[in-house]
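Sharing a chain and its predicted structure for anyone who wants a worked example. Both blocks are below, sequence first, tokens second.
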Amino acid sequence: MNEPILSVKDLSKTFKLHGREDVKAVSNVTFELFPGETLGVIGESGSGKTTLVNLITGLLPATEGTVLLDGIEVTKCDGKSLRNVWKKLQVIFQTPTESFDPRRTLGDGICESMRNNGVSKTDAMSRARELLKLCGLPEEFVHRYPHEVSGGQCQRAAIARALAIEPKLLVCDEATSALDVTIQAEIIELLVKLRKELDMAILFICHDIALVQQFCDRVVVMYHGELVEEGIPDEVIAEPKNDYTQDLIDSIL
């Protein structure tokens, strides 16, 4: 069996608040994600999903536990060493425009990571055009500004930007929740295609269990910072073992 591309073990994050009780946002979370697999992480707002993403990407230091990404122990990285982490993973955010500087074109934004890794301006722009086409946009969108495109088009461009450095793991942090249902379906279809073509693992953070059922190979359920259930989406939905999971399912039926 393949080695996991991402291994999270006993991961915890406690926030110490001045004059108030400490808050444990993530508590002893353990899971693995394998190459080419899509793992859904579901839970309502405040369940710890965003903190988990920030720990996995190295944007927050862990209080306890480890995150291993393709052989790199993220939980021991800081400063320059985090650059090696970010070459292997990229994040797609909920609000597409957050991925781009509004004063620069989409092409400039897509080229940025390539230019930072020594690719010439000409080659980077050529690759940006290819990535836009791969993500279902006309290559002339390299000249468009974020405010000149729709939300769905901007999210496609954000995916193109994330693919520019050929990451092994794509983290989608509520990447479809700000889009209407039709555009949401198009973005999911694009991600399915890219996962197959690029053999890329996807960590899909979401609060919509129906969407996770449609898209993910496995799912983990978070509640108050803890991982309370794990399994194949169809099985988790058909026979949830946790009351909170049952409540999530009932909310969409």
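Comments welcome. The first strand starts at residue 6 and ends at 15.
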